[in-house]
């Protein structure tokens, strides 16, 4: 893709290749994108190459490619330019909403930009997760019971990778004031100590609801937390007693919004 100007999908695909913090944004952009596949309409009246109105229920023929191991996958492309660079300019193609393509091809393996520097393969399970808007490996949102006997502190080994990725994510959420983490051992449950990640956020921001932040943070944590370490999410509320006050008064924030603008500038001008 070096000689082709990036569109938004190609940009976030490239960024997500290096940073897990961008992966949930990649999925969101992908599902809102129109993509290109090798194929044609089967309806003789609409057998126009490059038709941009293909939707679920239309009769189409979509080409698959055979991989070296003999298995097949369906290639799809982020732009017409990338398709033609990969397959040639004479190949018939269709423009399809990405979500419609996933619906049409349930049970099959697909590959985005398979001949480009930055590519992404989707197996049947991942496609199903995308369609149900249920990103894989979500982290629990922790509800602390009042009578629980817990020991709170810091982990012996600092979770550097997780903190770095969360810092990049939070820098893109203007509603987040601070980010914290601690290690919690609920002795009454006899379970393994858990990391608890807490976010102090402004009151309801319709543009960035806490549910969206939680989903994105869950994916980042699942990709970057220490191996085998359980992690919970917690919403820190400034005037709420209990765990919120422990975060605010006893724990040093790993992220502060005042650093965010500096991080965004750095991220916006970085080169992959």
Automatic annotation (TrEMBL):
Coiled coil: none
Organism: Pelagibaculum spongiae
Residue ranges constituting the SseB protein N-terminal domain according to the UniProt record: 14-128
Name used for this protein in its record: Enhanced serine sensitivity protein SseB
InterPro entries, per database record: SseB_C, SseB_N
Taxonomic lineage: Bacteria, Pseudomonadati, Pseudomonadota, Gammaproteobacteria, Oceanospirillales
Domain SseB protein C-terminal intervals: 144-257
